[in-house]
Structure formats: structure tokens, C-alpha cells
């Protein structure tokens, strides 16, 4: 378990240090700005970039994982996005696009340049690996992006957009250079992830090869990586994830927790489709896969504000998806119901089920209920969560699911069989939940419950479409890091998603097709004369989506 807790206040300290540096300058020296030194320590730049990327790919106000989670039916919310209505003016899209280029990528480029001069090779290597992670994720989300002409400052304020395939092709040598630099020795200064960067780099390469397997023969590369077996450790100790703290001032809690555990009500509802797949039921004719067993991770995934004995009448207002539908005190709304559901105008902030312990640091559901609150002082009836829970970026269980997919698809020929790897991935995903349970002081999932679940899933694998079972299980495990599932679905067609026009509900109508990419930031398109036209998100695929 990583021991550090990153601090948002780091930037406050950093700025204070810069001001102190300025005080040492001659007050009348007009040739240098004392508050903007030409050189910043690579350690602080690396920390800043890591915080920035986790924020942009996370579940907070400006995180892309929330949007991805909505289109992948982890979450659901009111508004056009209830029916795949993403726009280039959506706050997470605008802020993430701008922050990644102006923040994380700019900082990492300086770390690479300045660290090379200073021969701080570990920092240089880590920056190259993180840069590859960020750029690959941006291609996975947006397709073509500025790359070769990006982050050049005043030298080029209107960068052209590079084809996603050419960006991806540049990332593999970038990762290899990162590995070579990390291997030169030393530890990266300012590293908030505290991981084994060689393991991260190898795992990232495997992930990228898997993404492009439909458009490029990667068998030799994949087999070479698997034979070397240098992936993330099987105890999860080196998973790429950013730990958080519990401080209110300065704010250093998980941003997803801060957003979703507002006493005024969560931003996201939990999609009933996701809940019912995990519970093994189909109350509204969604037609999803049934593993024949209730998932033991449910109380770690979802927190019911209503106590376990609640009925529909206990909700603060008339409900859409109610306890009588769920068979528990779970309460939510349906996807594809915007401007249709007659109950959508009713506030359910104190009744709706919210994201629990596992995805973003909520609370383990012990059945007692309570009003979810992130306030420093709780009022009567309010309960708090566990804001120190990390945001996951790349994990051991994800690598196992990737290997299972590659084996199932016949791409890897030197690995274990897909069924064995699937079983290992399920065990690893349960271990991650138990790791977070230990942080929160919550009970662990028993080995017996885990084993019974694995047996049921493997039976479904034996009886049905192996790829669907693998990808559905990965979708369940990836809750809270929905960008992973968003890429998986476009590559494999799984998990099978809820269709608002074929269910048995009168309050759902699906009017838009699934978005195969995200729209570009509208502001950027308006300001950059070299930008392409806005993406038609239902048609404009990323290059590897075949």
C-alpha cells in the first residue's frame, strides 16, 4: 500500500516559494519578472503534472471519467447526456482539453527538456511514460489531436492536428526512451504515484498494443512483452493510482468524492442497468448478461441513502427507479428518460443511491443509510465517506483482463489460456476492492464469496460468448475509471449496453447513437485556424475502432 497522500496545497506552497525567490531579487530589476522564474524544479513540475492528469481523467467536476461513465452506463444524469448528448461546450471536455495541454503536457515537456540538461534521468523517464499515457488517452477519446506542433508556446499558437495513428506510432518509442532513462538509475523527485515505472511502462505498452490489434498485427510485440513478464506486480502494490488526503483546507480529497458526496445531492445517479447486471436481475427488460449470482461488490460500489428496510414511500419525492423495482433500497433514474420521465423534476438528493467506497471514496453500504455529505461538520442524519481512496489509472487487474482479451482473440500465443486469465483478473479486482475496504475500515469480501462468484462467471464463460464475459467483467471492475470501458466497448462491442428502444419501459426513448468519439472543445476550434471541423460523434471513429 502506498503511504503518501498528495496535497492539492502543493501548488500553494510552490507559489509561496516563488514569491520568496522574488523577494531576493533587486526590486528595480525590470529585465526579470521575480514572480515568474525561468526555471522551476523538475520535482514540482512532475507533481503538478500528475495531479493535473488524475484530475482530468477522474470523476470530479472537470474529469472525463464521469462523461465516459455516463455513456458506458456506469452513471446516469439528467440533461441531454442522458441520451448521448455530448457537446464541445460541456465543462469536463473544455476544462480537460485545456488543462492537459496547458498544464500536464506543458509541465512534462519542461521536465524532459530541463531534466535532460540536469541529468535527472528518472524524472525524464517518468515524464516520457506519463506523456505517452496522456496522449494515448486523448487519442482514444478525441481521435486526431495536436501533437507534433503542440506545446511550442509562442512558436506556434495554432498547432495542426495529427492523425491519431501517427500519434500512437510515436508513443511506443517514447515509452522505450522512458524505460531507458528510468533504468539509468535514481528515483524520480516529486513522484506522487510511488510505483515501479518499468512495470507501468510495460503494462502501458501492452494496453496500447491491445487497442490497435484490429488495425495492426501486434502478435510478435505482444508475445515478446508477455514472455518478458515485466507487468504490474500481482499484489497491486505498484498500481498507477493517485492517493488523496482528508484535508478540507487546503482541499486534497478525491475530487470525485467532493463532487458526489455533496449534501445537496450527487451530480450522478447510478445507472439501474449497471446495478441490475451486478445484482443478476432484469426488472425492465434490458436484456443484459446474467451471471446467475449477485455480485458481492455491490455494497462497496453503491451507497443507498435510504435504509435497507425502505419502501417507495420513504423517498423524499416520487421516484422513477424505486426500491420496489430494485428489490433493495437502491433508488435512481433511467437512461434515455430525459424530458419523458414524469418524475424527473423531483429532487432526490437525500434519497438517491450514490457512488460508494470503491469508485471514488464514498461509504461502504452497511444498510443503515444516511444523507451523504462531504461537509467538515456533519449535521443530524448525515454520514461521510472515505475521501482518501485513490483514483485508478492503470492496475494489475486491468493488465490481466487485457491479457485475457488478447488470448481470447488469438493475438497472444505464449500466454495462459483466456479462461485462466479471466479467473485471475476477477480475483485481482476483488483484491483491489478489499484494499480500499481496509483503508476505510470496512469488512472485506470473504474468500468464499469471491470464489463462488468466480465459479459462476467461469461457468458463464464456458456456456456463452467468452469475449462478452471477459469484457463485461472488466466493465464491472473498471467502475470509477470509465475511460477504460469506453475504449473497450468500441474495440470489442462489449459489454452489451442498455437499449432505450427495446426495453419494456414507456419512459425511455433512445434518439441518438452511441458516441464513438468525444466532441472537441468548442473554444479551441474557434481560436485555432488550423483546427478541423467539429467531430460528428456518432460517426467519426478513432483510428483503431474497426
Automatic annotation (TrEMBL):
Coiled-coil ranges per the record? none
Alphabetical UniProt keywords: Lipoprotein
Segments traversing the membrane: none
**Any one Pfam family match given in the protein's UniProt record, by short name:** SusD-like_2
Give start-end of the signal peptide.
none
Q: Which domain of life is it from?
A: Bacteria
Recorded protein name is SusD/RagB family nutrient-binding outer membrane lipoprotein
What is the protein's species of origin? Fulvivirga marina
List the lineage, top down: Bacteria, Pseudomonadati, Bacteroidota, Cytophagia, Cytophagales
Amino acid at each position: 500500500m502506498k503511504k503518501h497522500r498528495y496535497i492539492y496545497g502543493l501548488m500553494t506552497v510552490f507559489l509561496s516559494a516563488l514569491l520568496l525567490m522574488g523577494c531576493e531579487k533587486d526590486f528595480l530589476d525590470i529585465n526579470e519578472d521575480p514572480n515568474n522564474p525561468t526555471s522551476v524544479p523538475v520535482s514540482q513540475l512532475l507533481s503538478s503534472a500528475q495531479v493535473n492528469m488524475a484530475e482530468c481523467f477522474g470523476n470530479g467536476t472537470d474529469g472525463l471519467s464521469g462523461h465516459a461513465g455516463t455513456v458506458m452506463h456506469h452513471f446516469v444524469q439528467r440533461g441531454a447526456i442522458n441520451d448521448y448528448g455530448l457537446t464541445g461546450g460541456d465543462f469536463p471536455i473544455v476544462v480537460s482539453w485545456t488543462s492537459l495541454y496547458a498544464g500536464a503536457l506543458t509541465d512534462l515537456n519542461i521536465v524532459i527538456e530541463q531534466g535532460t540538461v540536469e541529468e535527472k534521468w528518472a524524472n525524464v523517464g517518468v515524464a516520457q511514460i506519463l506523456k505517452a499515457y496522456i496522449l494515448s488517452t486523448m487519442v482514444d477519446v478525441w481521435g486526431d489531436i495536436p501533437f507534433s506542433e503542440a506545446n511550442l508556446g509562442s512558436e506556434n499558437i495554432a498547432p495542426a492536428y495529427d492523425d491519431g495513428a501517427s500519434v500512437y506510432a510515436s508513443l511506443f518509442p517514447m515509452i522505450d526512451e522512458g524505460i531507458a532513462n528510468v533504468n539509468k538509475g535514481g528515483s524520480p523527485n516529486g513522484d506522487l504515484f510511488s510505483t515501479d515505472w518499468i512495470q507501468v511502462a510495460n503494462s502501458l505498452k501492452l494496453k496500447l498494443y491491445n487497442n490497435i490489434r484490429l488495425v495492426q498485427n501486434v502478435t510478435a510485440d505482444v508475445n515478446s512483452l508477455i514472455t518478458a513478464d515485466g507487468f504490474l506486480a500481482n499484489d497491486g502494490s505498484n498500481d498507477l493510482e493517485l492517493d488523496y488526503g482528508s484535508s478540507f483546507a487546503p482541499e486534497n480529497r478525491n475530487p470525485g468524492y467532493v463532487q458526489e458526496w455533496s449534501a445537496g445531492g450527487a451530480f450522478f445517479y447510478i445507472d439501474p442497468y449497471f446495478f441490475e447486471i451486478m445484482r443478476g436481475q432484469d426488472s425492465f427488460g434490458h436484456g443484459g448478461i446474467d451471471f446467475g449470482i449477485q455480485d458481492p461488490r455491490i455494497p462497496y460500489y453503491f451507497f443507498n441513502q435510504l435504509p435497507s428496510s425502505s419502501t417507495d414511500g420513504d423517498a423524499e419525492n416520487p421516484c422513477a427507479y424505486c426500491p420496489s423495482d430494485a428489490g433493495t433500497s437502491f433508488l435512481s433514474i433511467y437512461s434515455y428518460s430525459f424530458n419523458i420521465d414524469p418524475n424527473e423534476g423531483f429532487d432526490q438528493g437525500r434519497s438517491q443511491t450514490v457512488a460508494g467506497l470503491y469508485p471514488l471514496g464514498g461509504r461502504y453500504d452497511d444498510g443503515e443509510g444516511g444523507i451523504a455529505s462531504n461537509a467538515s461538520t456533519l449535521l443530524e442524519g448525515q454520514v461521510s465517506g472515505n475521501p482518501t481512496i485513490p483514483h485508478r489509472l492503470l492496475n494489475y487487474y486491468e493488465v490481466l483482463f487485457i491479457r485475457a482479451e488478447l488470448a481470447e482473440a488469438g493475438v497472444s500465443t505464449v500466454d495462459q489460456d483466456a479462461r485462466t486469465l479471466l479467473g485471475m483478473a476477477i480475483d485481482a479486482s476483488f483484491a483491489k476492492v478489499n484494499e480500499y475496504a481496509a483503508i476505510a475500515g470496512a469488512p472485506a469480501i470473504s474468500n468464499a464469496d469471491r470464489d463462488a462468484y468466480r465459479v459462476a462467471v467461469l461457468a458463464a464463460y464456458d456456456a456463452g460468448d467468452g469475449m462478452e464475459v471477459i469484457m463485461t467483467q472488466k466493465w464491472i471492475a473498471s467502475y470509477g475509471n470509465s475511460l477504460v470501458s469506453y475504449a473497450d466497448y468500441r474495440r470489442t462491442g462489449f459489454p452489451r449496453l442498455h437499449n432505450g428502444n427495446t426495453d419494456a419501459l414507456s419512459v425511455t426513448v433512445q434518439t441518438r447513437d452511441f458516441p464513438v468519439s468525444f466532441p472537441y472543445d468548442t473554444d479551441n476550434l474557434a481560436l485555432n485556424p488550423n483546427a478541423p471541423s467539429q467531430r460528428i460523434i456518432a460517426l467519426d471513429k478513432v483510428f483503431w475502432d474497426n
